[in-house]
Amino acid sequence: MTQVITIHPVTRIEGNARIDIQLDAAGEVCDARVGISSLRGFEQFVVGLPAEEIPRIVTRICGICPWMHHLAAAKAVDACFGASLPPAGHLLRELCQVLAHIHDKILHFFFLGAPDFLIERDADYSVRNIMGLVQQQPELAARVVRMRQLGQVMLERLAGKAIHPVAAVAGGFARPLGKSERESLYLDGQQLLDFACFALEFAKKEVFPQFLEVFAPVGAITTGFLGTVDQYGHLRLYDGTLRLMHPDGRVEEFAAPAYEQVLAEEVVTWSTAKVVYAGSWGEGLSLDPASPKGVYRVNTLARINVCDQIATPRAQVELEEFRSRFGRPAQHSLLYHWARLIELVYACERVLELLGDERIVDPVVRAPVTPQAGRGVGHVEAPRGTLIHDYTTDENGCITRANLIVGTTHNIAPMNVSVRRTAASCIQAGRVDDEILNRIEMAVRAYDP
Amino acid sequence: MKGRRRPRLSFVWLQACSGCEISLLNSGERLPDLLNKVEIVYFPLLMDRKCGGEGEFDLPEADVGFVSGSVSSDEHLTLLYALRRRCRTLVSFGTCATHGGIPALRNRWSAEATLETVFPGTPGQPTLPAEVPALLDRVYSVDEKVRVDFCLPGCPPHPETIAAVIETLVTGEQPRLPGKSVCETCPTIRTGEMHRTVRRFLNNAEYNSEEPVERMRCLLEQGLLCMGPVTVGGCGGPATPLCVQARVPCRGCYGPVRSEGNQLLDMLNVLASHGVDHRSIVDRQSLLRFSGAHGLLRSVRKTEGVVLMSEKGNKKSS
């Protein structure tokens, strides 16, 4: 007789997910699945709408990272309409994107992930969260809350709406940045960089040493990785070439519009999100933790692994330290959190770089566009991983077909492998308790679905 | 809710993006204080607590339940019924919950058509995920399924409004909810002279970027479709509506000014009364972009592969 253990809903993540763990007659794990249980159907309901409206609609895929969908969609629509943006249009869009990464990383590390590490592991569910952190470490919590909000407030000043944004428009950006606005944003950006450096030092001292030892078995798997780099192999979040790294270290690079030649999608019974795998490896898909096939990962750890270096100084120093400790590619799933904070430093440095670029205050921010038939693929690196929007338009510039691959979708396969591995190492003879179930959830939280 | 113990709050999400919850977190300095005033008993984004999931949800009892998202699967429905049973006051939190929001755009198609598009199927592969909650025939707002005590609109609601509503519910007072239209809270210049047609947003609006938004001409008067007249305001808190701050026209994300209003019919009225040719709008169905629940947006028939839409009042767009 078999038994199924269900974790539902998976908490302290964004979205609706559940885990089902199957035990055999001896109480050992024989299978485990993590699936997304909610379907909206964006691919259906954008059909027929004018393409220039889509960047304002797809934001509702995610309220934590609406900017990523907004920008990937805007880039896809630009491509459908053959638009060529003025430099300020791109710079302002990227500034918004890195600001949005900052709020997301602070949220994910401190609000969603850190309670597992900063609050005693046997603590009750009612305190193992940000509210518990507010009680136990009020000064730290107050600073975290303030800094996360600062990133959001900067976005509002720059672009009106921070959640479900509207300012990236077909052909560019809706409003230019004033010189005095730029100065005040720069001062705020410096505060964020100070905080990012503090957060990484804090985590290296207070969080990472214990968790790497205690939680070593959580999600340890070997996979490939996918991320975006520029022509020099530097980490990029806004644009660049996609680089797919095989577990053996060899890499292939491709432009986003060629994604279908490299990545394959498969419908599975237990998830509304399709499973994506590396079709170009020619080995098919297997979620067996002993020898996964076709499985690659996206998101922070993937980007840190695939890039040769980071083009901002503080983050590069951190990358070198990370590599000297964990090698390349680093495979341990909990290192997602470490990589997340390195990217936080990069994003803050990039804010200052972008604001320091004279072209960003150019009043010409948008090229007029003409609706036309076409196909456009837009991609950005979202906090949760590589995000691809693919649209086709008719001669009126209205959508006839859409395909979206979101960050979480790439990670469905590795999350399944990680969860099964973690469950198998934590559950023996059918014995489970809250602590074990939470460890299994941690394998999901590392990826940030 | 006056008394010794802190009021117990439950946050449940259905077909949601978590933007409403993130907006609550954006209340910044006010947040730690707010979190200390209440006891949050259920909040899957921020805290651990399982409530089961096979047919029955075991939610903790709460004084106030906040529900975000629309109702689009049988699992959402079960969860919503459980929440209604377990809380005294129920707040529809955000436009998906109050009017269907973006997820209700799916109501222009049948559930089967949506599934066929999303999972087109390939030879030798399963065409549909079978072990996931079943889609309902259409997307519903929360009040179509259970009794609701307060509707807090917004996509997402403004952080200050959320904080103020929680604070008033904590003290047992009636919350004051937004009631003015976006236009009433918009400072742009109106002359009464309208463009005779509505143009697509393919060029930026005309304005001097050196001047404050108060010196900009009303976007609707510039011939851009701005849903300000028929949309409830409050997105910018006490400040200028947020899209207008970005010099971008409103798309109606807070839903109708009166909760039973129809943004499509009301907007067509506005345009007609100013002599604007409504046929110049490329996608009239988008006037219900955020308020397609309550049967306003629904699939009717297929003609040569094109799905048409009908709305209340038997008006048909083609």
UniProtKB/TrEMBL annotation, chain B:
Identification of the protein by name: Methyl viologen-reducing hydrogenase
One Pfam family from the record:
Oxidored_q6
- Which compartment or compartments is the protein found in? Periplasm
Major site of localization recorded for this protein: periplasm
Residues forming the NADH:ubiquinone oxidoreductase-like 20kDa subunit domain are 17-168
Which keywords label this protein? Oxidoreductase, Periplasm
Supply one GO CC term from the record: periplasmic space
Q: Sorted alphabetically, which InterPro entries does this protein's record hold?
A: Hydrogenase_assoc-protein, NADH_UbQ_OxRdtase-like_20kDa, NiFe_Hase_small_N_sf
Highest taxon listed in the record's lineage:
Bacteria
Q: Which GO terms describe its molecular function?
A: iron-sulfur cluster binding; oxidoreductase activity
- Keyword Oxidoreductase in annotation: yes
> Is the keyword Oxidoreductase in the record?
yes
